[in-house]
Recover the amino acids of this structure.
């Protein structure tokens, strides 16, 4: 069984943290409808959706992936790189405690879950403006008893590692090579995003389905031509807040 933990869109979403995008007006009502449609995609993919509440003091809380890293053996609550987001973590820790033993990243470490990309027993962690070396070392120590290998990857030009690469198959990655070192992910098959769509590398694979934004039609066509079962969803309002499809849920696999 799969559980997808999501979080309500805050009425304060327009005051979200921004690093690489210019601030634009965000239609909260439309963003809420888009988030509802996203959750329906999760249900269609076989997930039971558990939505946590959020408040006015949590504009970025819908991007719940940044607050935790979940593997089969445990959940690790992060210490987000933006100090304004650290109030988000207690409720997420409580929610994850129903399904996993919960550990935490501690100061001076900072980590966003969007920088952590798990493929089997390989864990790739982006060194970014939100995730530092101290947190990477803590994550490595927490995962070592379970035989995970942690690899640091320097991220350039984008917010998170998962802005540049995600999994779309068992050994197949969707990536933007311009934002990654040339030596990264050489052992995987790869599908590059269309060069005209640099933000298009974020996809959410659940089972045989790939949830993917409608905003990147050229890369979407590449996914379809590859024979993937793509389920498109409009998340354009969330993208104005530097959101993407992976960051709006935590996928928890239950035994």
């Amino acid at each position: 069984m799969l559980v997808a933990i999501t979080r309500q869109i805050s009425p304060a979403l327009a005051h979200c943290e921004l690093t690489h995008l210019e601030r634009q007006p965000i239609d909260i009502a439309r963003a809420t409808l888009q988030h509802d449609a996203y959750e329906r995609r999760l249900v269609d993919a076989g997930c039971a959706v558990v939505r946590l509440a959020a408040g006015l003091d949590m504009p970025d809380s819908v991007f719940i992936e940044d607050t935790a890293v979940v593997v089969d053996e445990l959940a690790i609550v992060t210490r987000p790189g933006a100090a304004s987001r650290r109030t988000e973590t207690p409720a997420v820790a409580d929610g994850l405690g129903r399904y996993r033993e919960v550990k935490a990243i501690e100061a001076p470490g900072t980590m966003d879950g969007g920088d952590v990309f798990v493929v089997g027993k390989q864990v790739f962690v982006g060194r970014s403006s939100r995730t530092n070396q101290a947190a990477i070392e803590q994550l490595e120590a927490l995962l070592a008893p379970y035989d995970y290998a942690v690899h640091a990857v320097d991220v350039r030009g984008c917010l998170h590692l998962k802005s540049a690469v995600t999994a779309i198959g068992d050994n197949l990655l969707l990536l933007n090579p311009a934002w990654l070192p040339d030596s990264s992910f050489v052992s995987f098959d790869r599908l590059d995003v269309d060069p005209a769509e640099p933000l298009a590398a974020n996809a959410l694979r659940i089972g045989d389905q790939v949830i993917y934004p409608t905003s990147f039609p050229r890369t979407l066509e590449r996914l379809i031509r590859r024979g993937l079962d793509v389920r498109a969803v409009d998340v354009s309002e969330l993208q104005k807040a530097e959101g993407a499809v992976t960051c709006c849920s935590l996928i928890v696999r239950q035994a």
In short: The first strand starts at residue 2 and ends at 7. The chain has one domain: 2-253. The mean pLDDT is 96.
